[in-house]
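can u pls check wat happens w/ adenosine-3',5'-cyclic-monophosphate
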Amino acid sequence: KVQKSLVLIKPDAVERKLVGKIISMYEEHGLNIAAMKLVKLDKTFAEIHYKEHKGKSFFNDLIKTITRSEIVAIVLQGENAIEKIRRINGNTNPEKAEEGTIRKMYALNNTENSVHASDCEESAEREIKLWFPELVAKEEWFSA
Ligand code: CMP
Protein backbone atom coordinates (compact mmCIF):
# COMPACT_ATOMS: atom_id res chain seq x y z
CA LYS A 1 0.00 0.00 0.00
CA VAL A 2 1.36 3.42 -0.95
CA GLN A 3 1.46 5.69 2.11
CA LYS A 4 2.65 9.13 3.11
CA SER A 5 4.48 9.94 6.35
CA LEU A 6 5.72 13.13 7.97
CA VAL A 7 9.43 13.12 8.75
CA LEU A 8 11.22 15.83 10.72
CA ILE A 9 14.98 16.22 10.63
CA LYS A 10 15.48 17.72 14.08
CA PRO A 11 17.74 20.62 15.19
CA ASP A 12 20.55 18.37 16.41
CA ALA A 13 20.89 16.87 12.91
CA VAL A 14 20.46 20.12 10.96
CA GLU A 15 23.06 21.81 13.20
CA ARG A 16 25.55 19.02 12.42
CA LYS A 17 24.87 19.29 8.66
CA LEU A 18 23.42 15.79 8.39
CA VAL A 19 20.41 16.75 6.24
CA GLY A 20 21.82 15.39 2.97
CA LYS A 21 22.99 12.12 4.50
CA ILE A 22 19.63 11.53 6.18
CA ILE A 23 17.56 12.30 3.06
CA SER A 24 19.84 9.95 1.07
CA MET A 25 18.98 7.11 3.42
CA TYR A 26 15.28 7.51 2.67
CA GLU A 27 15.85 7.89 -1.08
CA GLU A 28 18.06 4.79 -1.16
CA HIS A 29 15.16 2.83 0.33
CA GLY A 30 12.93 3.88 -2.56
CA LEU A 31 10.97 6.64 -0.83
CA ASN A 32 10.00 9.80 -2.74
CA ILE A 33 9.90 13.37 -1.44
CA ALA A 34 6.32 14.65 -1.86
CA ALA A 35 6.88 17.97 0.02
CA MET A 36 9.68 19.62 1.98
CA LYS A 37 10.48 22.84 3.89
CA LEU A 38 12.92 24.39 6.37
CA VAL A 39 11.19 25.87 9.44
CA LYS A 40 11.89 27.22 12.90
CA LEU A 41 9.04 26.17 15.18
CA ASP A 42 7.47 28.31 17.86
CA LYS A 43 6.50 26.78 21.20
CA THR A 44 2.76 26.75 20.45
CA PHE A 45 3.15 24.80 17.20
CA ALA A 46 5.61 22.35 18.78
CA GLU A 47 3.16 21.67 21.63
CA ILE A 48 0.36 20.96 19.14
CA HIS A 49 2.58 18.61 17.12
CA TYR A 50 3.61 16.69 20.25
CA LYS A 51 0.29 17.02 22.13
CA GLU A 52 0.08 13.27 22.82
CA HIS A 53 3.23 13.61 24.99
CA LYS A 54 1.91 16.51 27.08
CA GLY A 55 2.37 15.78 30.78
CA LYS A 56 5.19 13.27 30.26
CA SER A 57 8.47 13.74 32.11
CA PHE A 58 10.39 14.54 28.92
CA PHE A 59 7.80 16.95 27.42
CA ASN A 60 9.50 20.24 28.36
CA ASP A 61 12.89 19.03 27.16
CA LEU A 62 11.32 17.83 23.93
CA ILE A 63 9.69 21.22 23.22
CA LYS A 64 12.85 23.14 24.12
CA THR A 65 14.99 20.92 21.90
CA ILE A 66 12.70 20.88 18.85
CA THR A 67 12.35 24.71 18.91
CA ARG A 68 15.99 25.66 19.44
CA SER A 69 16.94 25.99 15.74
CA GLU A 70 15.65 25.12 12.29
CA ILE A 71 14.27 21.76 11.28
CA VAL A 72 13.55 20.17 7.90
CA ALA A 73 9.97 18.90 7.50
CA ILE A 74 9.38 16.36 4.76
CA VAL A 75 6.46 14.33 3.45
CA LEU A 76 7.82 11.03 2.18
CA GLN A 77 5.77 8.72 0.00
CA GLY A 78 6.20 5.09 -0.94
CA GLU A 79 5.12 1.50 -0.54
CA ASN A 80 4.51 0.76 3.16
CA ALA A 81 6.18 4.12 3.93
CA ILE A 82 5.21 4.44 7.60
CA GLU A 83 6.69 1.14 8.75
CA LYS A 84 9.63 1.40 6.35
CA ILE A 85 10.62 4.83 7.70
CA ARG A 86 10.34 3.65 11.30
CA ARG A 87 12.74 0.83 10.50
CA ILE A 88 15.18 3.19 8.75
CA ASN A 89 15.04 5.57 11.75
CA GLY A 90 15.60 2.89 14.40
CA ASN A 91 14.65 2.83 18.08
CA THR A 92 13.87 6.17 19.78
CA ASN A 93 16.75 5.49 22.16
CA PRO A 94 20.04 5.48 20.19
CA GLU A 95 21.52 2.96 22.62
CA LYS A 96 18.81 0.50 21.58
CA ALA A 97 18.78 1.41 17.86
CA GLU A 98 19.76 -1.29 15.39
CA GLU A 99 23.03 -1.14 13.42
CA GLY A 100 22.73 0.92 10.23
CA THR A 101 19.71 2.98 11.37
CA ILE A 102 19.72 6.78 11.35
CA ARG A 103 19.44 6.99 15.13
CA LYS A 104 22.20 4.43 15.68
CA MET A 105 24.50 6.46 13.43
CA TYR A 106 23.56 10.02 14.34
CA ALA A 107 21.35 10.38 17.42
CA LEU A 108 22.94 11.87 20.53
CA ASN A 109 20.37 10.81 23.13
CA ASN A 110 16.62 10.16 23.59
CA THR A 111 15.66 13.77 22.98
CA GLU A 112 18.29 14.80 20.43
CA ASN A 113 17.51 11.77 18.31
CA SER A 114 17.90 13.39 14.87
CA VAL A 115 14.55 12.43 13.31
CA HIS A 116 10.84 12.11 13.94
CA ALA A 117 8.36 10.10 11.84
CA SER A 118 4.61 9.49 12.01
CA ASP A 119 3.85 6.28 13.93
CA CYS A 120 0.63 5.18 12.17
CA GLU A 121 -1.73 6.21 9.36
CA GLU A 122 -3.92 8.37 11.60
CA SER A 123 -0.98 10.34 12.97
CA ALA A 124 0.49 10.67 9.46
CA GLU A 125 -2.73 12.26 8.26
CA ARG A 126 -3.00 14.52 11.31
CA GLU A 127 0.66 15.58 11.10
CA ILE A 128 0.68 16.19 7.34
CA LYS A 129 -2.46 18.33 7.63
CA LEU A 130 -0.83 20.29 10.45
CA TRP A 131 2.51 20.81 8.69
CA PHE A 132 1.41 21.18 5.07
CA PRO A 133 -2.16 22.57 5.14
CA GLU A 134 -1.61 24.27 1.79
CA LEU A 135 -1.14 20.91 0.06
CA VAL A 136 -3.81 18.95 1.81
CA ALA A 137 -6.54 21.21 0.45
CA LYS A 138 -6.30 18.83 -2.49
CA GLU A 139 -8.52 15.93 -1.41
CA GLU A 140 -6.64 13.32 -3.48
CA TRP A 141 -3.60 13.65 -1.16
CA PHE A 142 -5.13 11.09 1.16
CA SER A 143 -7.01 8.87 -1.25
CA ALA A 144 -3.94 7.42 -3.00
P1 CMP B 1 9.74 11.51 18.35
O1 CMP B 1 9.55 10.42 17.36
O2 CMP B 1 10.00 12.86 17.84
O3 CMP B 1 8.42 11.58 19.28
C1 CMP B 1 8.47 11.92 20.66
C2 CMP B 1 9.83 12.26 21.12
O4 CMP B 1 10.00 12.39 22.51
C3 CMP B 1 10.77 11.16 20.74
O5 CMP B 1 10.93 11.13 19.34
C4 CMP B 1 12.00 11.55 21.54
O6 CMP B 1 12.85 12.45 20.87
C5 CMP B 1 11.41 12.30 22.74
N1 CMP B 1 11.76 11.64 23.98
C6 CMP B 1 12.56 12.15 24.91
N2 CMP B 1 12.68 11.32 25.94
C7 CMP B 1 11.94 10.25 25.66
C8 CMP B 1 11.66 9.03 26.35
N3 CMP B 1 12.17 8.76 27.56
N4 CMP B 1 10.85 8.13 25.74
C9 CMP B 1 10.29 8.40 24.52
N5 CMP B 1 10.53 9.55 23.83
C10 CMP B 1 11.34 10.45 24.41
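The chain has one domain: 2-142.
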